[in-house]
Design brief:
By secondary structure, the chain is an alpha/beta fold. Helices cover 43% and strands 13% of the residues. The protein is built from ten helices and ten strands. Strands 1, 2, 3, 5, 6, 7, 8 and 9 form an eight-stranded mixed β-sheet that branches. Helix 2 links the parallel strand 1 (51-55) and strand 2 (82-86). Helix 3 packs across helix 5 (115-129), helix 5 packs antiparallel against helix 6 (193-213) and helix 6 crosses helix 8. The protein starts with a helix and ends with a helix.
Length: 324
């Protein structure tokens, strides 16, 4: 057995080695961000943030019974995860606080009045700023979050996206991509380059939309196509392809993710088949919510489909046309 001094020296050596490895990992992550031409928003020091992020206009008490039960289910299935629910006002507070050093983000987000653009943008911002998972308020947790990533990928996955729409190489409906990722449920570690790129692209797209319409940010009138391309799933999808292409040094596109039957790791992004987050849809060979590989079920009852943004019929037509 080791005596006291020898045991102490051994502990010091092991502790030093672990510290060096952590510093090397952090340096590698920051170098990756710099190589992609991105800027980290905050310290990359909490890469396993266990937070569930959701947003609602006025808070949980304003929700219907079904949505409240789904909120409770997220907590019941994920007791070790902290549940953060942001109201409209809470979103503004969060952005001003977390991104105090990023005036470009604060300016655009707080000036926006369009509810859909704000709802899309805040999901990327909370993942960039804090990390964890974001899921729309009208989603149901089917499996614990800790079971989303297969064991063989847990140590190498930094973000998770799921397929929403897959035409298997056929021409997609207008405003959609051949293979498009879901943005109603996303998982990411904080300060990840994919979220930085997504936010940067969204900010640029929103500013371009205001410029095109010759209006201030608060007066943007976004149509269905505008939303998909500037903050919605099309934006997330193109940013994912762009990030992975730069990170791997090869062109990554729909060809790499079409027809998925099992989770696929590309660099540090885990891409899930359509049934994981997109179950219950009538296209893309999606399975049912009862499928053992289904993780989250989207109820498609979001408020963005009513009022000024009455896109429900357009969205359904786009998803049902031209897809297997």
């Amino acid at each position: 057995m080791l005596n006291g001094p020898k045991r102490l020296r051994l502990l010091i050596v092991v502790s030093t080695a672990v510290t060096i490895l952590l510093l090397l990992y952090r340096a590698s992550f920051l170098n990756q961000i710099e190589r992609l031409g991105l800027s980290p928003t905050s310290k990359v020091d909490n890469l396993t943030q266990r937070k569930i992020w959701q947003t609602t206009k006025l808070g949980p008490m304003s929700l219907g019974e079904k949505d409240r039960k789904n909120l409770e289910k997220w907590d019941e299935m994920n007791p070790t995860w902290r549940h953060e629910i942001l109201t409209d006002g809470g979103c503004d507070e969060y952005v001003r606080d977390r991104f105090a050093g990023r005036p470009d983000i604060v300016k655009v987000f707080t000036a926006l009045k369009d509810n859909i653009l704000r709802a899309d943008l805040i999901r990327y911002l909370v993942l960039l700023g804090d990390g964890g998972i974001y899921s729309d308020i009208d989603t149901e947790s089917l499996k614990p979050i800790d079971e989303w990533i297969p064991p063989e990928y847990k140590d190498v996955t930094n973000a998770v996206v799921g397929v929403e729409y897959d035409t298997f190489g056929h021409d997609p409906a207008p405003a959609l991509l051949i293979v498009q990722f879901i943005n109603w449920t996303i998982m990411s570690k904080n300060s990840h380059p994919l979220m930085e790129l997504t936010v940067r692209n969204a900010i640029s797209a929103i500013e371009a939309l205001a410029e095109k319409q010759q209006v201030p940010l608060g007066h943007i009138q976004a149509n269905f196509n505008d939303v998909l391309a500037s903050t919605g799933p099309a934006l997330l999808t193109t940013a994912t392809y762009e990030y992975l292409s730069k990170a791997t040094g090869t062109k990554v596109s729909w060809l790499n993710v079409t027809g998925l039957k099992a989770p696929k790791l590309i660099h540090d992004i885990l891409v899930l088949p359509v049934t994981a987050f997109g179950n219950g849809q009538t296209h893309s060979n999606a399975g049912t919510p009862q499928d053992p590989t289904a993780l989250v079920h989207h109820l498609f009852s979001g408020s963005w489909k009513t009022g000024t943004h009455a896109f429900k019929a357009m969205a359904q037509a786009a998803h049902q046309s031209g897809s297997p």
